[in-house]
């Protein structure tokens, strides 16, 4: 399914008029880089069934070694979710005492139901602001689990009142994380931080500007990764700003000078300017500081346990 999807879209031009953008020539700081490298490891951990189908109190772990810094913190699962909705939204809430954080982490695409959410390129009204439109599959992935997540977050935060809320995800998980963070900021968590790695476009211009204005958004792209180029600009979707464009190649250690900070909901200075979303570029999608989706299970199941 993934192959036919990207092959078809590769032949379609990404239309749209560029809005004013600005390429920031400054390097990110070492402390920023360390944060970026750390939080992606929570996104990596979501691909392991041991973490999104866990027992309360289980320690977050990655058997393939791609979340070592998270493992060092001893972070534990407070709530896990998967396989309960038509979208198969999966992930966990974790409590990280080392970093004084409650972490809401969403898994990227794994099941057939996830891929259906990925390609539902229809706008819906999320009710976040006047004129706001979101991608139906991504918004549904959040909306179907929102009540349960908010209930569990309330408990996690009440037990750790001085902890910050961090929302993370990779790929589909980043799209869901973006909309979840935007929603949660209006529901009692105004300072929630978002770390979105390889997110597709999730919003029309009005919603993108609304989320951008909330602040605390860290959205990452990598070289010519095709996923952040979707849905196409011609479909009425744009990105949350700013973009942190990683220019180092796959499997390379990222330095501060390898990340360019780009402002604007449409900009051709970063990932969007590297060409059409091609299947041949998909290798760039899996490497964001670490091999993020290395913990993903085999095959393309409709639901967990069925191939």
TrEMBL record:
Q: Which UniProt keywords apply?
A: Hydrolase, Signal
Signal peptide location: 1-18
Which Pfam families does this entry report, sorted A to Z?
Lipase3_N (PF03893), Lipase_3 (PF01764)
Keyword check for Translocase: no
Q: Read off the SUPFAM superfamilies from this record.
A: alpha/beta-Hydrolases (SSF53474)
Gene Ontology biological process terms, A to Z: antibiotic biosynthetic process; lipid catabolic process; monocarboxylic acid biosynthetic process
Does the keyword Signal belong to this entry?
Answer: yes
Domain Mono-/di-acylglycerol lipase N-terminal stretches: 5-77
Q: What is the superkingdom listed in this entry's lineage?
A: Eukaryota
Q: Which residues form the Fungal lipase-type domain?
A: 103-233
A GO term for molecular function: hydrolase activity
Record-linked InterPro entries: AB_hydrolase_fold, AB_hydrolase_lip/est, Fungal_lipase-type, Mono/diacylglycerol_lipase_N
PANTHER family, alphabetically?
Answer: FUNGAL LIPASE-LIKE DOMAIN-CONTAINING PROTEIN-RELATED, TRIACYLGLYCEROL LIPASE, PUTATIVE (AFU_ORTHOLOGUE AFUA_6G06510)-RELATED
The molecule here is called: Fungal lipase-like domain-containing protein
């Amino acid at each position: 399914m993934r192959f036919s999807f990207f092959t078809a879209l590769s032949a379609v031009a990404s239309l749209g008029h560029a809005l004013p953008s600005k390429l920031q020539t400054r390097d990110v700081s070492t402390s920023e880089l360390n944060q970026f490298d750390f939080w992606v490891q929570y996104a990596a951990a979501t691909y392991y069934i041991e973490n999104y189908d866990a027992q309360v109190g289980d320690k977050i772990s990655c058997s393939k070694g791609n979340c070592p810094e998270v493992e060092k913190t001893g972070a534990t699962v407070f709530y896990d979710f998967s396989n309960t909705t038509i979208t198969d939204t999966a992930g966990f809430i974790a409590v990280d005492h080392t970093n004084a954080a409650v972490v809401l982490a969403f898994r990227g695409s794994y099941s057939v139901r996830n891929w259906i959410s990925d390609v539902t390129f229809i706008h819906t009204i999320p009710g976040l602001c006047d004129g706001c439109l979101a991608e139906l599959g991504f918004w549904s992935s959040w909306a179907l689990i929102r009540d349960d997540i908010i209930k569990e977050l309330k408990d996690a935060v009440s037990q750790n009142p001085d902890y910050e809320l961090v929302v993370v995800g990779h790929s589909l998980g980043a799209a869901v994380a973006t909309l979840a963070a935007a929603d949660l900021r209006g529901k009692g968590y105004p300072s929630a931080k978002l770390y979105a790695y390889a997110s597709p476009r999730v919003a029309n211009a009005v919603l993108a500007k609304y989320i951008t204005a909330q602040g605390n958004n860290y959205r990452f792209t990598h070289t010519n990764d095709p996923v952040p180029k979707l849905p196409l600009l011609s479909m009425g979707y744009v990105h949350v700003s700013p973009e942190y464009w990683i220019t180092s190649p796959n499997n390379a250690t990222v330095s501060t000078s390898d990340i360019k900070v780009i402002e604007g909901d449409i900009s051709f200075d970063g990932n969007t300017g590297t060409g059409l979303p091609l299947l041949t570029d998909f290798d760039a999608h899996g490497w964001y500081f670490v091999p993020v989706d290395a913990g993903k299970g085999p095959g393309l199941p409709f639901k967990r346990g069925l191939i």
